[in-house]
Queue: 4 jobs
Job 1
Amino acid sequence: MLVVRREDEVKAFPHAAGFVTALTGEKDFAGANLAIVRLFGPDLPHYHEARTEFYYIAEGLGTLVVGREVISVKPRTAVIVPPRTAHHLIPHSAVKLHVFSVPAWSEHDEHFIDPDHPMHGYSLFREKVELVNELVRRADLELPPGISGERLEEFTALRMKLVSDEGWDTMNVAELRELLVRKENA
C-alpha cells in the first residue's frame, strides 16, 4: 500500500516537552514508522522494550543521553538507539528531529524511567508538564493541521512558559487559546 503524507497536512500532538507529528504509524505499516519531533525542553528518560529508534537531528542543538553515553547533537547528526536502552534528549535550543522506529511506535512499548529517583531530578519537571497538558486538554486546545514553523514555535514557547513559570494560572490557558484563534485566522 502506498502512503504519502506531508508534514504540514498532519496534526501535531503534544508530547513531553514539545510536539510530535506522526507521518506514518502502526496502522499504515506495523514494521516501522516515521515522526517529526519538536522539543523545546528536556524529554523524560525512557526506553523501548522492542523498538530501535533512528534519530536524525534536522535543526537545533542539544545533548542526547543514550545509556551511559552523552552525545552532543547538532543538525545532520544521526544516532541509532537500540531497544532496552534508556535515553532522553536535552535541547539547548529548539530541536527538530526525525525519528524512524522499527517496529512502529506503540504506547505499550514506551517505558519511562522513574523520574522521582533522586539521580534523575525530573519529578518537578514531569509534574509541571502533566499539569500543562491537563490545562491544554481542559481548554480544548488543539493544534490545527498544518501549524508549523514560527506558529508552532510560538505556541510551544508559550506552552513551555507554563511549564517553567512558577506562577502560571488560568490566564495562561486563555493566552494559549487566543494565540491559536489568532493563528487560525491569520
Job 2
Amino acid sequence: MSAGAWKELGITYLQYLELCSKTLRGCLKPELMAAAIRRGESILKFSKWESGKQGELKIVPNITSEVARKNAASGSTDN
C-alpha cells in the first residue's frame, strides 16, 4: 500500500495501522498468534466533559469491523 493509499480508502492513519497490525499478527506461528491477538485487542471509550461533569460515555466501535463493513457496502475486497 502506498504512503497515501489509506487516504484513498477513506480511513484514518490509525485505522490503517490497525489493519497492518492485524495482517502481521495473522502471519505469526499459531503458538505466538494467540498472545499477539490478545495484546492487540482494545476498546476505546470516551465522554465529553462540560462544567466539570462527565457526559455520556460512548464506546468507539472496532475500527477493523467498520472498514470491513464499508468495503462490503461498496463492493471492495480490499482490507
Job 3
Amino acid sequence: MTEAPESPKDGSLLPEVFGFSTEEDAFDALANENGNRYWSAREIMGYLGYESWESFKKVINKAATACMNIGAPVLENFGDTGTDCKLSKFACYLVAMNGDPKKRQVARAQAYFAVIAEAFQRYISGFEDIERFEIRHRLSGQEKSLASTAKQHGLERYAFFQDAGYRGLYNMRLSELRQYKDDPSNGSRPLLDFMGRRELAANLFRLTETEARIEKDNIQGQGPLESAAYQVGRQVRNMMVQDGGAPPESLPLATDVKKIESDLKRTLKGLTKAEEDRRTKDE
C-alpha cells in the first residue's frame, strides 16, 4: 500500500483527489484491491486535511455510528485493523460527510461524494443533515435514560415531567409547540424528528443536564422532578437567547429525519451495488 504524502498544515502540497477533472477518478485510484476494494483511513486522512490520527479517528467513529444507526454492517464497512481502518466506499462517504466542512479538503470531498450519491438521494443536502440524523439517535437514547432515572427517583407521570422541560425551554407546552411550529405530522410523530441541528442539540443538552441534576442532587418525587426539568430547560433557553440569539420556538423545522435515514440506506445500497458491478466486470 502506497503511503500518502506528508500532509502540510495548509494541505497545499497534496494532489487533489476529490474531483472529476481527469479521465481516471483519482480517489478510486487510491483504493486497495484485496478481494473487496477498500480505502486506507490513514492514507486518505491527509487528503482530507487532517494531521492527527487521533482527531481523524473521532471522525471515523462518528461515521461508524451513523452506519450502525441505519442498521448497516459496521465491520464490513469499517474494518479496524488496530493501526488502520479499511473503509468501504460508503464508509468513505460517511467519513467525508462527518468531517469538518471548514477544511477546504473536506468541503471538496463532500461536494465530490454529493455528486456520486446524487442518484440515490432525494433529501440529504449536506453534512448538517447527517449530523441531525446522528443527534436524533442520541436523543432517543437519552430520552430512555432520563425516563429510567426519573422513574427511579419517584416519577409517576412522565407526560407532566416531559412538559415541564418543554415549558422551560420553549415557554409553552409540547402540544402548544406542535401547533406553534405547524407540526408536519399532526401529532403522530415526535416533533424532534423535524427539528434542525441547533434545536436538536439544545434538546439533547437539556435532557442530559436534567438527568445529571437529578442524580447529583438526588431529587425525589413528582413535583421536585418537574421543577428540575423546568429549571434546566429555562437555563438552556437563556443560553440560546443571550446576546440576541434566536429563541428555540422560532427556529425553522427541517427535513424529516426518517427521510434522511432512507437516503442513507439507498446510498449504501447504491454504492455497494456499484462496487459489486465493477468487481464483476473486472473478473
Job 4
Amino acid sequence: FPPAFGLLGATLGMISLLQTLGEPGAQDRIGPAMATALVATFYGLLTANLVLIPIAEKLSSVSQADMTLREIIKEGVLLVHEKKHPIFIREYLRSFLPPAQRIGDDSAPAAAKKAA
C-alpha cells in the first residue's frame, strides 16, 4: 500500500503543479508542488522497502515453516492409520527435514550431532 500512497501523493502534487502553470506568479508555486509530489513518492517507497517488505518476508518464512510442520503431521497420521511400521514412519518423516535437523541420523553432519 505505501507505494500506492506515494503514487497518490505524486499525482496530487502534479495536479497542483499543472493547475498553477497558466496563472501569474506560477514560477513561485511550481517548486513546492513538485517537492510535494516527490516527497510523497519518497515516503511511500521508503515505507515499503524498509518496513513492509521485511515484515512480509518474515511472515512468509514463518508461514512456510508452519506449512511444513502441518504436512509432516498429516503424513505421520496417515501412516499410523495405514498401520505402517514405526521405524518406517520415523525414517519417512525425517526425510521432510534438512539433513542438519535430523536428530539421531547417522548421515547427519557432526556439528548437528553435537548440537543435539
